Amino acid sequence: MSGKPKLHYFNGRGRMESIRWLLAAAGVEFEECFLETKDDLIKLQKSGSLLFQQVPMVEIDGMKMVQSRAISNYIATKYNLYGKDLKERALIDMYVEAVIDLNELLMTHTFQPVDKKEQHFATIVDKATNRYFPVYEKVLKDHGQDFLVGNQFSRADVQLLETLLMAEECKPDILAKFPHLQSFKARISNIPTIKKFLQPGSQRKPPLQEKDVPKLMKIFH
C-alpha cells in the first residue's frame, strides 16, 4: 500500500485546496481520489470512512481524517509549519482564521445568483482591502522579516499566499496599495516547493467556473 496521503474530494478547489497547498509546501507527494457522481459520495459514506458523512477526507498515517481545519492542523504540526511554541501557534491560528474568512468569500463568489454577484464582489474587495490585507501589510512592515510569524516559514504564509492569488484572480490589481504583500507574494512563490506547485501540470486546481456548478450540485445535493 502506498504511504502517500490520499485525498478524497471532487476535482476542484473547495475546502480541499488549502490542504493540497500545505502538503505541497511541505514537499509531500499525495494521491487524489475524485468524486465524480453522487453515487461515489454515497459509497464513501456507506463504507464508514466519513466520520460526519462529509468530505474532504484525507487518508494519512493510518487515519481517515475529516474536517478541513483538523486535517490542516495535523499536516502543519507533522511537517513543522506551526511555529516553535504555543504563542507562535496562537498567532498563526489568528492569521489563518482570518485568511479562511476571506477565502470563504472568494470561494462562494461563483455560486452567487446573477443579481447578487456585483454586491458580493464589492464585499470581497471591501473586506480584503480594508479589513484583512492592511493587517498583514502592517505585520510584515513592522517586523521587517520574510515570514509572518517567528521569521520561519509556516502555514500562515502558505495560506495567505493561496488567498492572495485567489484575490488577484478576482481583481488583478487588488494588491496595488500593499507593497509589502506584493513582495511577500513574490518571495513565498519562489520557495522551491511552492514554485513547483504553481507550475502548470501540478495538482493545484484552477478557479471554479460557473459551468462546473451543476455537476457539483449533483454530487453534493
Notable features of this structure?
221 residues; alpha+beta; 4-stranded mixed β-sheet; 9 helices; 4 strands
**Rg, Cα atoms, Å:** 18 Å
The proportion of residues in beta strands is: 5-15%
In the sheet with the most strands, the strands line up as 2-1-3-4
Shape: globular
* Helical coverage, percent range: 55-70%
Number of helices: 9
Major β-sheet, in short? Answer: 4 strands, mixed
The overall pLDDT average reads: 94
Q: How many strand elements? A: 4
Structural category: alpha+beta
Runs in which pLDDT lies below 50 for 5 or more consecutive residues are: none
Q: What series of H and E elements makes up the topology?
A: EHEHEEHHHHHHH
What distance lies between the first and last C-alpha atoms, to the nearest angstrom?
Answer: 33 Å
Description:
With 221 residues, the chain is α+β, with helices and mostly antiparallel strands. It has helices spanning 17-25, 38-46, 68-78, 86-108, 114-143, 155-170, 179-189, 192-197, 213-220; strands at 6-9, 31-34, 57-60, 63-66. The protein has a 4-stranded mixed beta sheet with strand order 2-1-3-4, covered by helices on one side. Helix content is 56%, strand content 7%.
What's the helix and strand layout?
Blueprint: E1 6-9, H1 17-25, E2 31-34, H2 38-46, E3 57-60, E4 63-66, H3 68-78, H4 86-108, H5 114-143, H6 155-170, H7 179-189, H8 192-197, H9 213-220
Parallel strand pairs: 1-2
Antiparallel strand pairs: 1-3, 3-4
Helix pairs in contact: 1-3, 1-6, 4-5, 4-6, 5-7, 6-7
